[in-house]
Predict the 3D structure of the following.
Amino acid sequence: MRSYRIMIIEDDVNIGDLLADALKPEGYLVSRAYSGTEALMLLEKETPDLVLLDLMLPGISGEELLPKLNGILTIIMSAKTDIDNKVRLLYEGASDYVTKPFVVSELLARISALLRLSGAAEGREEPGQKDVIRAGDVELDTALLTVSAKGESTNLTRTEAAILHLLMLNSGRPLGRSTILDRISADTPDCTERSLRQHISNIRKKIQELDGIDHIEAIYGVGFRYVES
């Protein structure tokens, strides 16, 4: 299964942080924009699978930005509760509308449902499609089991790819050993707490041979963290 890309367009840093912290552990790739103008610039470089859009943005408002999203799945997040306004935005292209303050678990469920329905309708998951994620200059392909950096690539075992995938999705955030083992257990039941350290060591060496950087930091008493540089 490939990782879906979600763009958060929200000028409130605390709300944006809350959303990013909820989305990343679920396997979503997250990008952020803090204004309508910044969002347009970012959209020239990437096309997300879904957008979380605040209406009260500096510069270009969310309502002005909505028609420029060109059919990208969009969930409006707004404190505006006027029914007529909600209905109008849904007719103008919004996929869903969530009123602030919202319950994060409900929002996650709405996101999952929209992506699932869209994928079934549009056939987004094409046979053989690559599941590629990037953190900094490092790119991981979980379909081919390869990691690349600076134009070079090397092979990974399935267990190494699963561990690295989880660490890269949570780039910059420490993950406990038990958390890592629990999250990868379905795909790699052979990995144990005893062998995890060796797998981590193998991953570190393989990436370091590509770009000369030690991307995985061991945190005493906690676990491991992926660092981009």
Q: What stands out?
A: The longest helix spans residues 104-122. Confidence is low (pLDDT under 50) at residues 120-130. The chain is about 40% helix and 20% strand. The radius of gyration is 19 Å.
